[in-house]
Design a protein that fits this description.
single chain; alpha+beta; 21% strand; ModA/WtpA; D-Maltodextrin-Binding Protein, domain 2; signal; 3 domains; 341 residues; two-stranded antiparallel sheet; ABC transporter substrate-binding protein; globular; molybdate ion binding
Length: 341
């Protein structure tokens, strides 16, 4: 009997370790759970979706069924039935999409309730484009071919040249990096250099498909040379103290709020959103001399099903009403001659 209980406990611990990307979680601790099988004690609002249905402009929602941690599809928004505009948006401003859509629909009421948008990382959105707009999440597979795609300006230019996107590339705002930490900053992280310290657990964007990783690498090298970048993205990945995220704008704050990581580099806007949402998150500023700037841009996808709608959104995205929404989260309007990407 004791052997079977021990095996069950080990299996439970192994599962918890696997789902958290190699970071050991307190949930596997029999002392914390009083040696009993219990439902998690997590606060429901720690888990996405964090907008409580606001990032969905569907007019008829039918039966509501959202279960944080289990059934939520937090990066897929709107009604897939018959959209009049499909947007693939690099997820760095998922939180700004609801007010942007509301303003767009106010200006263009014919589109009310007819937008569908996705906010997974830009590299993964390209994979979806290459798959004909088809994606599978959990047990569900659907197809939503994009009308417009949004990412860093350099990537947009690259895909315009390759023929995937139609010219012109439309830049609209810029963003800078910050270090996101739990509200009480228990690891006392004060700078990028601190991220190389042994024992500091990091949640970092994956260079394979998250464009922010390029800017982070540049910032780390400015702060501590190649040695710091290697420590964060090579040495600490190898020893398990850096976990690479799949969707940094969802996972980094989630890991921090659960105590699974001590810090992670994100866009400043993402930390501001978490703070405005009242989550137990704060940030550590990165000096301008060490920081990197991203230029956000978009373009119509070649062969878009709704080219008129795509052009309307691309015109709207750098209008004054749209820029005012972006500025709530620390974005700055793009000005010609700005450097970044």
């Amino acid at each position: 009997m004791k052997t079977s209980i021990r095996r069950a406990a080990l299996a439970s611990a192994a599962f918890a370790l696997a789902v958290c990307g190699g970071v050991r979680v307190a949930a596997a601790d029999p002392v914390q759970w009083n040696g009993k099988a219990e439902a998690p004690h997590y606060k429901e609002d720690v888990f996405p979706p964090w907008q409580h249905g606001q990032n969905n402009d569907a007019l008829k929602r039918g039966f509501e069924f959202t279960v944080p941690e289990v059934d939520d599809l937090a990066d897929f928004h709107g009604d897939i039935t018959d959209p009049k505009l499909v947007l693939y948006v690099g997820g760095n401003y998922f939180f700004a999409m609801a007010p942007l859509v509301v303003e767009f629909e106010r200006e263009h009421p014919d589109y009310k309730g007819r937008l569908y948008w996705e906010t997974i990382p830009p590299g993964l959105l390209i994979k979806q484009i290459e798959a004909g707009g088809t994606i599978t999440s959990g047990n569900m597979t659907w197809t939503a071919r994009p009308d417009a795609y949004f990412a860093g300006l350099k990537k947009i230019d690259q895909f315009v040249k390759s023929g995937l996107l139609a010219s012109p590339a439309v830049p609209y705002v810029t963003n800078t990096l910050t270090i996101m930490v739990p509200k009480d900053n228990p690891a006392h992280v004060t700078s990028l250099a601190d991220l190389g310290r042994p024992g500091i657990r990091l949640a970092m964007p994956n260079p394979a498909f998250e464009g922010i990783a390029r800017q982070i690498d540049a910032a780390l090298k400015k702060a501590g040379g190649a040695a710091l970048a290697t420590a964060v993205y090579k040495t600490k990945v190898a020893d398990g103290s850096t976990v690479l995220t799949h969707i940094h704008h969802r996972q980094t704050p989630l890991f921090l709020m659960q105590g699974l990581a001590d810090a992670g580099v994100t866009w400043q806007s993402e930390a501001m959103f978490q703070e405005q949402a009242g989550h137990a998150i704060t940030h550590v500023d990165i000096p301008t001399a060490q920081n990197s700037t991203a230029i956000y841009a978009g373009a119509m996808v070649k062969g878009a099903a709704h080219p008129k709608a795509a052009k309307l959104w691309l015109g709207f995205i750098h209008s004054q009403p749209a820029l005012a929404i972006f500025e709530r989260y620390g974005f700055k309007p793009y000005t010609p001659g700005a450097t970044g990407g």
